[in-house]
Amino acid sequence: MLPLTTHTLEKLEMLLRTAGYKVRYEKGNFKTGACLLQNSKIIVVNKFSNLDSRIIAITELARELEIDHKLLDEKQIAFLQQLKQTQLEL
Known about the structure:
The protein is α+β, with helices and mostly antiparallel strands. The chain has one domain (6-85). It is 43% helix and 20% strand. Strand 2 and strand 3 (40-46) form a beta hairpin. It has helices spanning 6-18, 51-64, 74-85, and strands at residues 21-26, 33-37, 40-46. A three-stranded mixed β-sheet has the order 1-3-2. The chain has three helices and three strands, in the order H-E-E-E-H-H. It is globular, with a radius of gyration of 13 Å. Helix 1 (6-18) packs parallel to helix 2.
């Protein structure tokens, strides 16, 4: 199981940044999601979500996205593989 800590959130954000995505925290009444905006890969996360919800939402997105392994280092590839094999529980 993936630990729901600030360190995990930082690792997820770094993984996505390395893969070419921008992670933004915005306020509003919306669900977390990923979008492609004018050739920019942007992931928008609800600013008011708690830490657990942020980690779970970003992890679900990272599991679904097509991330080029050539952009990642060995630790990030291992972390991404761990994400794809981990069952998320709240």
